[in-house]
Design goal:
Length: 220
């Protein structure tokens, strides 16, 4: 069975590990999330850095202060936490942008996606996903079976099912005989739709999510 680590090394399917958007902490400034999937023998990590007019010319992630952002750690061996990062929309309806971080190598590459909610605060605590997430902190979404690579791609969508809430689509690039699958979810995180690709082409998943992330329409 291929591991997520090997998949990342052998194929150029993973997303670049940074993304900027507004309102993670509600101050109106753009923030950034940075993935470091090779951290600690490919357990991986991610860093949410808050925008600031006084941030300076450089910032060391090893000394990221609680008022500057927070670190997300706790990935298991080979989880490659942070190989995918994204967000930019409000998933839980509190008016703040949320963060999504993939760990497609979790539990023998069954895969996991973490949704971390934005919050209005002047300081933040570090997040260890191995300890579990509190209900007001976010949620962890797990893949179906070993080897699926769930969480390798994801995107937040504008209210596909017209319930007034933004929705989430998550890719499992190695599932379905390595053809790939995608899961469309809605609050409170129930499956709305599962798509199985019928073409033996893992690039289909990458192309799908590239389109979804650039499309401002409510369709797929």
């Amino acid at each position: 069975m291929k591991t997520a680590k090997n998949s990342l090394q052998n194929r150029k399917h993973h997303k670049s590990g940074h993304l900027t958007w507004k309102r993670v902490n509600g101050d109106g400034l753009k923030d950034v999330v940075i993935g470091a999937y090779g951290y600690n023998n490919y357990r991986g990590s991610a860093y949410v850095v808050l925008g600031s007019p006084t941030i300076g010319a450089s910032l060391a992630m090893a000394s990221l202060g609680s008022t500057q952002g927070y670190t997300v750690t706790g990935g298991g061996t080979g989880e490659v936490l942070g190989a995918f990062v994204g967000g930019g929309k409000d998933f839980n309806g509190d008016g703040l942008s949320d963060v999504i971080i993939g760990g497609s190598g979790w539990s023998a590459s069954q895969g996991s996606l973490y949704v971390l909610y934005g919050k209005q605060a002047s300081s933040f605590s570090q997040v260890d996903v191995s300890l579990g997430l509190a209900a007001d902190q976010g949620l962890a979404i797990r893949g179906e079976q070993a080897g699926d690579g769930f969480g390798g791609y994801a995107a937040m969508l504008e209210d596909v099912n017209l319930d007034g809430m933004n929705d989430l689509i998550v890719g499992a690039i190695e599932s379905n005989g390595q053809r790939g699958s995608a899961y469309l979810l809605y609050v409170p995180c129930k499956w709305l739709l599962k798509l199985n690709f019928n073409v033996l082409n893992r690039g289909m998943s990458r192309k799908l999510f590239s389109v979804l992330q650039s499309d401002k329409l409510h369709d797929m």
